[in-house]
Amino acid sequence: MHKPYRAPREPSNGMGWISRRVVGAIVFAIVSSILGAYAVAKGYISGEPTLSTACGAAILGFSFIVSLAVTTHMKHKAQWKKAWEDYYAYWYPQYYRR
Fold it and tell me: pTM of the full predicted structure?
């Protein structure tokens, strides 16, 4: 039986969106735990950071912004790398093979 032609799949290079989400969650947890421990040590909050206090909301908001910045940077870096790979593959096909 004849199989229809399929274009070859592009190999996945770099970190995908799942990996970025995992890194974002880890960064969020680390930043919020460090800032939460500092706030508890200084007496700004008692316990863990929650949205019910202004300090806790600020800690969680700052942690979210930092994790978003890290994952956005990772995404832009991967897109930039892919663009350069495509450029070299187009202009120098004899040296760069996929």
Answer: 0.74
